[in-house]
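A sample follows:
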Amino acid sequence: MAEIALEKRNDLMAGRSHDLGAGCCSGGVMALAAASTPGADYSDFVSTDPSAFVETDQDGNLMLHMLVENMHCANCIKTIEQTLKSNDAVIDARVNFSTRRLFLRWRPDEIEVGELVRPVITLGYPLTPYNPEMIKSASAEENTRLLRALAVAGFAAANVMLLSVSVWAGLFSEDMGPATRDFLHWISAMIALPAVAYAGQPFFKSAIGALKAGHVNMDVPISLAVILASGMSLAEAIQSGLHVYFDASVTLLFFLLIGRYLDSAARSKARSAAERLVMLKAVAATLILPDGSRKTVSVEAVTPGSLVQVMTGDRLPVDGVVEAGQSDLDVSLITGESLPTAVNAGDDVFAGTLNLSAPLEVRATKTGDNTLLGDIVRLMESAEQGRAKYVRLADRIAGYYAPAVHILAAVTFAGWWFFAGSWQVALMQAVAVLIITCPCALGLAVPVVQVVASGRLLLKGILVKAADGLERLAEIDVIVFDKTGTLTEGRLDLVNRDEIPNEALDLAARLARNSRHPLAMAVARVGTPGSEYLAVTECPGLGLKAVCSGEEVRLGSREFCSVTEVDSQDFPPGPELWLRVGQGEAVQFRFKDRLRPGAHAAIETLKSRGYKVEILSGDRSEVVAELATALGVEHWRAQQKPEDKVNRLKSLVASGHKPLMVGDGLNDAPALAAAHVSLSPASAADISQTAADFVFQGRDLQAVPETIYVASAARRLILQNFSLAFLYNAIAIPLAVAGIVTPLIAAVAMSASSLIVCLNSLRLRLERGMSPL
């Protein structure tokens, strides 16, 4: 059974179609549209092997990602989501307008997936099970179809316009008789009607599907305008009338197709960061079998514990540990850093990274969607598919907007028929109102910006976890940093190596390698412990002790090593260890936590932008004071317990501030949750990353001002897009109602408004961001 499901899944990747009901291809990709045929067998879609398409979340609910076709406006989103949510089994249904992805979550054992999606397909929105190959294939084929239709419409428009100029010139002279005029009209009809039939298919098919389902989408008025113009022109030609509208019909299609093609191209450029990440997944892996032979299998067939060979130029198919080989990896998708990282035997490596230099043998630890790349994809999808404040606002506006526009079009039709006395003129003006007021620009105002912002941050190694994280981050006025692991790397270095005898250092290393304490690990890294182990006893909170050459050796705190005659003023503040052999002289080991790269520049940049910066740390006062002075931070608090950090953040919120908390430790998790918005480094404890709204992968603390800048820029662009959409409608609607705008001009204006919003959103890719002064 599993082999059948895998075969079907591979066939889907290749663009082939199995009989999922009646079986249908849409745009060269297997679609479920035909499954709306009465009596179609939906069970084959999910029951053969649910893992082929359907995922299970941590609560046991089922999830499915699908591509939606024929979706062109915010009203389409509302219709699809409301249709799915009307089923009691559905927990969540969200549509991303810019990427056309439908995310569906439902309770298991209540309904089969085929029955669940039937109403959406019946409405005229074919659904395609999501995978990266389908996205690329569907996007490429859609653009090709639109370009062909655009070429046909452009050719017809140019030729019919030339004939129309001849007819217009003849109307003002006595040289052209009725027979010549009729002949030119029929030549125009022979060019225009086939062109309209072919180039209008993207609109006609969508409109027919919507009308069959009993609802109206934006393609209905567009199709009506084109068909009416062509039909009225044909009637005039048959009756030897003076005026025909073949030039208007094909030119209307030409400009509408330009707008739709540019919109499709903009969507491709703003493709979600999660989708781009999925496309980086390897599709095959080379297993090294126990007998030494090699076997190429699909990535899904690799299990933890398998030994995988990764050749030069290949992407790693799994998370794992290097068993043999030495190479350089491009890890930019994980860390955001462009420089390659050298890896050797024993180093951890991750799926999706690119092997640059030499073959590697990797022992798989995590495979499939359980890899780090899979985790990142899920975080990004969750954030992009979420319903942030501005998205909800746009949805509510669109919900009221669509009925208002149809009412306005009906009033326009009635008014023009009453005052002009011609239903043809009244109908054309009503169609112009419907076309020019389509809420496409409003529907694109928010999602395109969010997707572009998430993609820009991803290139810097910053993951957006919360759907409304960018909006909340744009509102902050105070930035609160933890110290250890955030402003510093949490990696302690021995700073007085030259003052320590080699024998003392090596002896300390022999003890230290038996402990996981950060100070002990720092000693073990520097010293040479040798191969002989000591019987070491660890005294929690004090240190390590052992017997060496008949004498007791202690490595630990001052008290543990009985160091009492030391003037503390002789040594700078900071972490320390002491080594004492028997009753001999104690040797001090002094340590210093390493600042994160970019810490100084990040703090200076944030202060220059007017943000108030604070440090909350659980470390000693003298250590925190030294760090704060070095970074130029005036406000700091030391020896802070987790509840103290939470209380400080609550105090800031109560006083009207909106703080950003940047922290990494377990003790920072409550503070991250209490802040207005939060950010953690990837080195943070799992619980802190769970609580944080953003996670940055690299070591450089410049990720903090970069994230803040992108959030502020995104909010600015969203507000600009709203303003552009409303300004467009404020100008366009009165002109259309007054009869100044024809359907042709309405088509140009509507397409232009959507394009302007997309281009304005894409500016975020070009802006420089917060640079250190």
Remarks:
- The radius of gyration is 33 Å.
- Residues 132-171 form the longest helix (40 residues).
